[in-house]
Amino acid sequence: MPAPDPRSVASTLVLGSLAHFLLAAVAVQALRPEYDPWLAPLSLYLSGAWSAWLRAGYYGLALGIVLLALELRRTLEPRARYALVPVLLCGGALALAATAAWPGPAPGYPVDDLEALVHRIAAMAAFLLVGSGMLLQSAALHRDPHWRGRALAALLLALLAFAGLWLHALWRELPRGASQKAVVALYLSWLWLCAWRLRTAPR
Question: How would you class 184 by CB atoms within 10 Å of its CB: exposed for 0-12, middle for 13-18, buried for 19 or more?
Answer without folding.
Answer: buried
